Structure to design on (852 residues):
């Protein structure tokens, strides 16, 4: 596991070199994705079937998953798993309801009314990855905020497989309230959602994680539809001092590391003693992990222990890292809230272990990765609404505004703008 | 001017054919921009100077515009223009302050605290186009919401010119409270903001309109930094019935048409009489417009008069168009607010002429174009903040959640997630 030590400025420089965040452009993938999107625009469902055969080795009869298939999948899932998903749903709903925003209307000036409407998107597409692992929790996290926002139709797509869609994914879709499911994956799935086909309705926004083809396709259709952020590897940053429990910290770091060999687990501390204990614990706990191979690679290649000189320096460094998940394992953690400038989801104290947020607390687990917490937010209800401004002026109010408007319009060389106001007074 | 008539469904189909919104990929521009960005990443300021020489025909001594230069520009601007900009600023500030959002904290469950922090971005870059026309109003519209959000540093860039930066742009930057100005344009300017150079600080988000090189560069750096929406040509949609004033409607349609030969002016009405009068008025008013040539081309190639059978059909059609600007010139316009599903900025009644919003009312004039009002919002304070989730659990609360968390984690094959929670109870 790599250690960074020294002056804060040296650590920040080393971090910048270590965390290479320049976006890699993979031109081959980009070109392939461009062609796939063009094919789907031109040939619709037929293109989707051909790509399913080619990429998923599945000859599709129906793209659409029927209500019966969903219900059968739901029935096959263990009752306690259903109950846990229902409990998670309840928490996700109660948290996200607090994010709801409301219209406002401003009547401060005589004869003038200015306002803002909060309107839900009409139709949203959710991409759910296929492959060996199924993540029903992600279905809840992507769908429920859209439901709370008031989105009328939620379309889920997921890659076809010879064995059919995973039961627990179908169950999660039912619990979350997905309206329609289609079995289509990859860039072709994103293209279908963005432009529509005979079978798949065009959506207004696409959310959900995927592999490099999915991510590249989302970037390419951006503008024709809205997209959520492009997700990178998972990240955790833990701030801890000598009083913290190394066992818990190691376990939490490993819970990120097991996601992906590119996952990044970072401890920032002012205690050499703690750092050493955590490192020892990590290698001990690693031994018995089923996903040992993945977690070990992640820890070896992307794990970091950073020794800062003071608690203040710890926060400076962590704010530069801008981690997706941030644990504050310091005494009286809430007293440090004000010091946090960049983090997707903050976990306070030794019992707010990060997996609580992945599965249960109700905060969203779709979070800004790779330092994008500097400018992106967790997925939320705000991602599924848009605002409309409203303006009303009486003739008297317009008369008072007229001179300023016509002066500025003419200064910008836009005479028709000036005349549009003046003609009201001819 | 083109007319669309018939059944609502026929009109919607014709609209889809008429308004081709598939994004054109210009691979040559994309490749050029990719190279420019790489050069700026590798060679920093030196690359910026070389591109200024090549593209702007300016040999730059300093990239940075000094406070003295800004002050001199400000002093040279007519006093009444300064006063009009100050008045506009006051309205923009009072409107956007209503958009401010606040932290929340939820303590519904015993031993659990869940919250959301609203944190400003640290540093934002604003692109201001150069060229013959200067748009000081756009400087206010891009900068002031960032100020209100609490952004600490606002960097403006604008292309260099042999005559220096326009005085009124410098004045608007001063009034809006820009922190630093650099004279750099094009894709190289966007690259400098996204990755930083010796002189230009790296920002967290880039906003502001620009030509195809600027727009393509913004799309390419998206992910390394945040960006605002990619702006297309200006659009206005007007809903009006037989009682509306054709002179006002024609003038408002022309105020959009004069922006750009690609600008789109659309009247949707249920009155043939009004439609004919508006068309006649448009050609009459066109004759004396300084920007007649531009406006005429826009009206001829992209102007639309749509005859709907009912008021309900008028709204159905307009919601499909999702115009950037929407005027409702119907009696008792506020009673129709609920019918509007997609529009950037809504103007109610015959005195809320659209230029009021461009220059004075205080609502933002940076708006979603080309139908993107279906999923995008006007530029606002919300574009310059991001949210952080906060979670705190006591040991007792975690004990109650433990079974659901570990069950779901193991169902997803993520054993280390389960153990991270369980180790707290060993």
């Amino acid at each position: 596991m790599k250690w960074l030590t020294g002056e804060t400025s040296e650590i920040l420089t080393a971090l910048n070199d270590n965390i290479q965040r320049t976006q890699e452009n993979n031109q081959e993938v980009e070109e392939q994705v461009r062609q796939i999107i063009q094919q789907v625009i031109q040939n619709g469902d037929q293109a989707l079937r051909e790509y399913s055969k080619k990429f998923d080795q599945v000859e599709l009869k129906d793209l659409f998953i029927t209500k019966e298939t969903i219900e059968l999948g739901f029935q096959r899932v263990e009752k306690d798993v259903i109950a846990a998903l229902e409990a998670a749903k309840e928490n996700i709903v109660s948290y996200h309801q607090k994010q709801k925003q409301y219209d406002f209307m401003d009547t401060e000036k005589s004869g003038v009314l200015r306002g803002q409407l909060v309107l839900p998107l009409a139709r949203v597409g959710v991409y759910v990855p296929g492959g060996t692992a199924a993540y029903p929790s992600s279905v809840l996290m992507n769908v429920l905020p859209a439901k709370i926002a008031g989105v009328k139709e939620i379309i889920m797509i997921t890659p076809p497989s010879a064995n059919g869609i995973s039961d627990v994914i179908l169950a999660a879709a039912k619990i979350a309230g997905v309206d329609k499911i289609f079995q289509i994956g990859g860039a072709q799935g994103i293209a279908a959602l963005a432009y529509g086909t005979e079978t798949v309705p065009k959506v207004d926004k696409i959310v959900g994680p995927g592999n490099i083809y999915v991510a590249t396709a989302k970037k390419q259709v951006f503008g024709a539809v809205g997209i959520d952020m492009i997700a990178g590897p998972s990240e955790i940053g833990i701030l801890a001092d000598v009083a913290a429990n190394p066992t818990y910290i190691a376990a939490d770091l490993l819970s990120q590391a097991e996601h992906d060999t590119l996952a990044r687990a970072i401890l920032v501390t002012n205690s050499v003693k703690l750092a050493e204990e955590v490192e020892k614990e990590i290698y001990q706990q690693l031994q018995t992990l089923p996903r040992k191979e993945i977690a070990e690679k992640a820890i070896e290649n992307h794990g970091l222990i950073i020794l800062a000189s003071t608690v203040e320096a710890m926060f400076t460094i962590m704010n530069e890292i801008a981690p997706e998940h941030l644990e504050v394992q310091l005494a009286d953690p809430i007293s440090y809230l004000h010091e946090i400038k960049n983090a997707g989801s903050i976990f306070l104290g030794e019992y707010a272990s990060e997996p609580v947020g992945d599965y249960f607390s109700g905060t969203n687990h779709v979070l800004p990765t790779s330092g994008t917490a500097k400018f992106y937010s967790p997925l939320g209800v705000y991602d599924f609404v848009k605002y409309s401004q409203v303006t009303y002026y009486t003739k008297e109010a317009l008369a008072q505004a007229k001179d300023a408007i016509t002066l500025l319009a003419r200064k910008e060389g836009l005479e028709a703008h000036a005349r549009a106001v003046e003609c009201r007074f001819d």
Observations:
- The two ends of chain B are 77 Å apart (CA to CA).
